[in-house]
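Reviewers asked in the last cycle whether our approach scales beyond single polypeptides. To address this, we selected a multi-component target totalling 562 residues and predicted its structure end to end. The input consisted of the following lines:
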Amino acid sequence: MATALAKAADVTTSVEHAARIENVSKSFAGPAGQQLVLDDITLDVAPGEFVTLLGASGCGKSTLLNLVAGLDEPTAGSITTNGRPALMFQEHALFPWLTAGKNIELALKLRGVAKADRRDKAEELLELVRLKGAYGKRVHELSGGMRQRVAMARALAQDSQLLLMDEPFAALDAITRDVLHDELTRIWRETRLSVLFVTHNVREAVRLAQRVVLLSSRPGRVAHQWTVDIPQPRRIEDTAVAELSVEITEQLRGEIRRHGQH
Amino acid sequence: MASTETKSAAAVDDSHDLAGLEAGLDALETVHTGRPPLRQTLVQKVLPPVVAVVLVLVVWQALITFKVVDDPTKLPSPGDVWGEVQDAWLQGKLFGYIWTSVSRGLLGFLLALVIGTPLGLLVARVRFVRAAIGPILSGLQSLPSVAWVPPAVIWLGLNSSMMYAVILLGAVPSIANGLVSGVDQVPPLFLRAGRTMGATGLRGTWHIVMPAALPGYLAGLKQGWAFSWRSLMAAEIIASSPDLGVGLGQLLENGRTASSMSMVFLAILLILIVGIAIDLLIFSPLERWVLRSRGLLVKS
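The resulting structure, written as structure tokens, was:
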């Protein structure tokens, strides 16, 4: 934690946060009255920082991401981001009526990029996710991993400083997921984006992040944070990754166990 | 210096490895879809309906030949009907009949499209409008549009505007309802993805909702055309007048008054063929193109 803060402090002095979540609570109307999903969450993401949000089901991690994305309003507290963040979902959410390239161009168009520049920019982004030549491909012609990479390119096309990812690799097979971890790490380091990545996979969280935030469930609260200073590129099977994962898993299990006790 | 060089070389190597790995995965996981060969299409798509039509003709001719039905005023022979086609052709009237009806039908359908589309969007997107007229609109679909012919004649008289009014009353609800159900079936994920990209309000409607709703909208158009054509025929049969020209409906009615069963058959046949032809030439290719380009036309 201390290292992360120190780092954030010396990277920037003017732009303080890619996202600042202050005392955010969220409740939904449920069958048993108002149900508190997120309880007093305070969390900052520094510019260029990679943070994973980890938690069991019902911890409200996707809810929190929706709030940061501006798709929903918090019941209490405030969220500030620098511009509109880009959001990637578990499903690729690419539009099937457009080709891969046109999907990216739509994001460019909605952000106001001039027509003449869109094609080049889209090709450039496809090259960044190593899908050169996929411009004219329809979504259904792409494999699961390729679709998520196009989705990543489309998210990057929004030119946001913050990329929100909601379990984007959960539906992929293990081999593809592993490759996409490497890919995401590479792109994150090249683009210097801030990333807030939601997952329930502890190893994935440790493999990717500079900081892992564990949320407790029902209601979601920040239970614990870890700074991960294992140097990148990491591998999911690295001993250091495994050791930290064991520690975090222990905590996570403790959080889950509490719910069986009442 | 040397150590940094090795390190960057290793990094390059690493990234090269990843690129190769990824290319391999992509190649392994990509499915290739292509169109089936022409021969297969002919055998699977064209042959069965041709067989069916031939079968019907054979049964029809058999009924005449074996004198099962021995009354040309009840059932004319296929030859008689063909003779009627030739007569109309030689008098140069055949295309006149067809064109009179088709031009009315298509113009009426286009008008219905222009009215039905914004109406459908309003019902789908504005909650108050949906609550107010949504049920009426879907109820109207089950009202046979023939029911509109008498009031239309009374309101507008025996003229083309009455025909168009009947077509509109038949087709507008179908088109609007098709669009509404298309919009209702848009996956919420697309809307959320659109919103995070800044496609809200009218921009969201144009870039996300409309294209996503296109399959449902097309189904509505197809049904709208069927309804236009039906209502037009009903209108032409009921409200024939010399000033209106002879369309297929009037041809049918003329056949009835002249007790010429072969003319009646000719008219019915032409009505059927035009209905099928418009569907085959316009709507089916459009629908298939939309579905195929979205990967929704998968062969099992």
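Confidence is low (pLDDT under 50) at residues 1-10 of chain B. We regard this as preliminary and will revisit it once experimental data from Aim 1 are available.
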